Every structure is written in C-alpha cells, then in structure tokens.
Amino acid sequence: MAVPKRKMSRSNTRHRRSQWKAQVPGLVKTVENGRVVYSRPHHAKLVEDSNGNPLFLEYKGRKVADA
C-alpha cells in the first residue's frame, strides 16, 4: 500500500476532492404503447400489469427475475 512521505495540506486536499463530480446517467428514449419512456441502457426493466402492480424484471425481452 502506498504511504505518503509528507502530510498533504488542507488546501491541497480540498482542491483534489473538488474535482470529483456527479454525472448525469445516460438515458435512452423509447416509445412503448404510444408513451415516451426513458430508461437506462443495459439495465433490467420492471414489467407491470395494467393496474401498475410489478410482475417481473425483463432484460432484452427475457424474464430475468421475479419482482
């Protein structure tokens, strides 16, 4: 494990930390049943029935898990 030779100043520590920024997730726009739906690519989609109750998770048209 790397060990620093000298103590890093408070100013330098804060400058280093200030470079970390949150990124906006990339969303994909699709049209399902006449509605525009935004989803994250390469993530499972929750399939619901007509009442809005969760049924299962789907990925690439296949059922991957129960909800």
From TrEMBL:
Q: Where is the composition biased (Basic residues)?
A: 1-19
Q: Which domain of life is it from?
A: Bacteria
UniProt keyword annotation of Cytoplasm present: no
Q: What GO terms describe the biological role, i.e. biological process, of this protein?
A: translation
Record keywords: Ribonucleoprotein, Ribosomal protein
Residue segments, region Disordered: 1-21
Q: Which GO terms describe its molecular function?
A: structural constituent of ribosome
GO annotation, cellular component aspect: large ribosomal subunit
The answer on whether this UniProt entry bears the keyword Ribonucleoprotein reads yes
Q: Which Pfam families match?
A: Ribosomal_L32p (PF01783)
- The record lists the membrane-crossing segments as none
- InterPro entries membership: Ribosomal_bL32, Ribosomal_zn-bd
Entry similarity comment: Belongs to the bacterial ribosomal protein bL32 family.
Name it.
Large ribosomal subunit protein bL32
Q: What is the lineage of its organism?
A: Bacteria, Bacillati, Actinomycetota, Actinomycetes, Micrococcales
